Amino acid sequence: MNNVPFDKTFIEGVTAEHPTPFHIYDEAGIRSHARRFIGAFDWVPNANGSAGGFLNYYAVKALPNPHILQIVHEEGMGFDCSSFTELVLMEKMGISGEQIIFTSNATPAYEYAKARELGAIINLDDLTHVDYLAREVGMPDLICLRYNPGPLKEGNVIIGNPEEAKYGFTREQLFEGYRKARDHGATRFGLHTMVASNELNPEYFVETAQILFDLVVELKERLGIRIEFVNLGGGIGIPYRPEQVAVDYQIVSAGIRSAYESTIRPAGLDPLRVVMENGRVVTGPYGWLVASVVHRKDIYKHYLGLDGNMAHLMRPGMYGAYHHITVLGKEDQAATHLYDVTGSLCENNDKFAIDRSLPPVEVGDILAIHDTGAHGHSMGFNYNGKPRCAELLLQEDRTVKMIRRAETTEDLLQTIIW
Ligand SMILES: *Cc1c(COP(=O)(O)O)cnc(C)c1O
């Protein structure tokens, strides 16, 4: 949870033009984090063996707004796409080739065709997709396969339970997958895994790297296949709760580097590029859902009724996720009151917070709900006919630009055949 980069007076200036609710994203915060994040991995070799081989493919689904994507691209990130529409967004932005990795599952052929057309790196989710891709759209030169480590021999508490996840190849299938891909004409290979989400333990990412490095060595030994990059997936967590601590990139980087030195280098497999595909950590902490208190209700419990609702932020209702809340103008007051902070949907889980301690709140107060810069607006839905809200960008010069307008009732009725 970050400090809010605006105060009540500033937001009152914004609401004069853009009524609540809206998400607002902090450009300066996104940029400075991106530099720190990428900078931590400056030792990673590129294909020629010199530095600069680290790349984070920003997971587009986290915040698929081209203004934000442009900012993270300017900071040196590529993109992880998972659907046709996300690929079309890339096309409209003029981004193509190996700046994009396409990671999908249960993928229809037309999505692979689009990925191929853009020259994106295709990351296959299953053994049967090797033949499917070759048959439907042709095997590209460069192909990546997604590994699901399943029941790891030594049982790894950090990695959790990938056996229950629908993604990826088993270990044995991977060997067959690379063999088949080579038979279909692939000449360049990547290896991917992603087995956790919102993980705050830096050691987790080091373990993941070690598992992939060991596989890279075994693939070389058993098949003669030389992997050119490993993709550790996304999933770096963010401290949603005030008592949580952000992942220390220096620890992650140093741990991965030492695994590289002890596994990849002695096997003669250097240079191997190391890439990731984080979304949440890149933009999550730099977004706030700003909503006004429209009603207060006192029955068996005390409720605040906002003009924002689940359509704008699903995570609390969907996973019981914690999002910190600041009452603008009351930052220094003691949190003496207990509230359920609710939206207006006919769903009892339309709550941004349950039993949250806040300063006394009045109708008309403006709340900033933290960490909505990833899996926030993009996860919204239109149940109950609720339009999704606008997205604003707080630019580096402190001016505010609307980067997506709010949906209207007309937008929602547009697809009906009358
Ligand atoms: C969702 C997803 C990501 C991004 O996850 P974050 O938690 O936003 O970092 C990356 N890769 C794949 C395959 C995903 O499904």
Please explain how this structure is put together:
The protein starts with 7 loop residues before the first helix and ends in a 5-residue tail after the last helix. The chain is globular. It is built from twelve helices and 17 strands. Helix 4 (84-93) runs parallel beside helix 5 and helix 8 (202-223) packs parallel to helix 9. The model has no long low-confidence stretch (mean pLDDT 96). It has two domains: 8-23 and 284-413, Beta Barrel (Lyase, Ornithine Decarboxylase, Chain A, domain 1), CATH 2.40.37; 40-278, Alpha-Beta Barrel (TIM Barrel). The strands form two sheets. Strands 1, 10, 11, 12, 13, 14, 15, 16 and 17 form a nine-stranded mixed β-sheet that branches. With 418 residues, it is an alpha/beta fold. It has helices at residues 8-15, 27-39, 66-74, 84-93, 109-118, 128-136, 171-183, 202-223, 249-264, 280-283, 315-319, 409-413, and strands at 22-26, 55-59, 78-81, 100-103, 121-124, 142-147, 188-193, 227-231, 273-276, 287-298, 302-306, 325-327, 337-342, 351-358, 366-369, 390-394, 400-404. The structure holds pyridoxal-5'-phosphate. The site of pyridoxal-5'-phosphate (PLP) has 17 residues, from loops.
Distance between the terminal alpha carbons, to the nearest Å? 46 Å
Rg over C-alpha atoms, rounded to the nearest angstrom: 23 Å
Average predicted local confidence, pLDDT = 96
Which second-level CATH architecture of the largest domain applies?
Alpha-Beta Barrel
Biggest sheet details: 9 strands, mixed
